[in-house]
Design goal:
The protein has 6 helices and no strands. Helix content is 68%, strand content 0%. It has a domain of 96 residues.
């Protein structure tokens, strides 16, 4: 539940980059990274965006998996969702991993909830970073055109 899409819970971020980013850089990187992200491999995002050493994205990179773990813990300990009964290999896609780990469709639902929650944490930071990159790309295009 914590590392959906890789460390930092970046699956929702990657999906948004594929379909909603206005910046050419984020759009292309999102499309190139979606395959690995589905299998919880996010090095293309971590080093390609980059998230590491990026003050715009380091806060949600730390906050999203932290909050996802708290939500998953309380969802399971409250009895609303079934406990994990099987160790699932790390590259198992999020929803499938939640289902297999709990042997219950509700486990997959909890995985979906944590992916959406992580994305909602990333969303304002991504929008601001995307806007900044669009402006930079526009300035570079104008400079090359002169």
């Amino acid at each position: 539940y914590v590392v959906c899409g890789g460390s930092g819970a970046t699956l929702g971020m990657c999906i948004w980059m594929c379909f909603c980013a206005k910046s050419e850089q984020l759009s292309v990187l999102g499309k190139a990274s979606i395959g690995p992200a589905i299998f919880n491999i996010n090095e293309p995002l971590v080093f390609g965006v980059p998230i590491i050493y990026n003050p715009n994205l380091i806060i949600p990179f730390i906050l999203a998996p932290s909050l996802a773990s708290v939500v998953a813990y309380f969802a399971i300990s409250s009895g609303l969702f079934p406990p994990i009964i099987a160790n699932v290999p790390w590259p198992t896609p999020a929803l499938l991993g939640g289902f297999i780990g709990t042997a219950n469709l509700m486990g997959g639902l909890l995985a979906l909830i944590t992916v959406v929650l992580a994305f909602l944490i990333y969303w304002p930071f991504l929008k601001a970073y995307d806007k900044k990159l669009v402006q930079q790309e526009k300035e570079m295009a104008e400079a090359e055109g002169q």
